[in-house]
Design a protein that fits this description.
Elements (H helix, E strand, L loop, with lengths): L1 H14 L4 H20 L13 H24 L5 H23 L10 H21 L1 H7 L2
Helix pairs in contact: 1-6, 2-3, 2-4, 3-4, 3-5, 4-5
Length: 145
């Protein structure tokens, strides 16, 4: 099972871009989309039927952002230790999550400053970072050797 998983991860890493600029660009797009989503007033009809749907959405969105930022920074700064990269990404995701909540406080029809949303943002970014650090980042460096 682990050999099959390893081969699958190698297959995925071999097809992903190796340039950090691609991931920084995608992270920038992610941030712009976050700002646009936070500036609007969501009207999801079925969101209230799923308990804590907003927390799940925050977690998933920041998981993607944390994964993109980890990949971009990991490819850009090869000498950066995994621990420093981890703390950098978690700090940035947490800061962006906090700024997002602050921003939502000024948008009519939105409630901002929700600590639960901020925590979901931070844990999502942390999880995305750990996933990339554990599964893919070392496989990128193996491609270049």
């Amino acid at each position: 099972m682990s050999i099959k998983l390893s081969a699958t991860l190698d297959f995925i890493a071999a097809r992903l871009p190796e340039r950090c600029a691609a991931y920084f660009f995608l992270f920038g797009c992610w941030f712009i989309i976050l700002w646009l989503l936070s500036s609007g007033n969501p009207s999801l009809k079925h969101a209230n039927q799923i308990p804590h749907f907003d927390k799940i959405a925050h977690f998933i969105y920041f998981f993607i952002g944390g994964a993109l930022l980890t990949t971009a920074c990991g490819l850009k700064w090869h000498g950066l230790s995994r621990m420093k990269l981890f703390f950098l990404v978690v700090f940035v995701c947490s800061l962006i999550g906090r700024l997002d909540e602050y921003h939502q406080g000024f948008v009519p029809g939105r409630t901002g400053n929700d600590t639960g949303d901020w925590l979901a943002d931070t844990v999502g970014g942390l999880s995305g970072c750990l996933t990339i650090l554990g599964c893919l980042l070392s496989r990128f460096s193996n491609k270049n050797t």
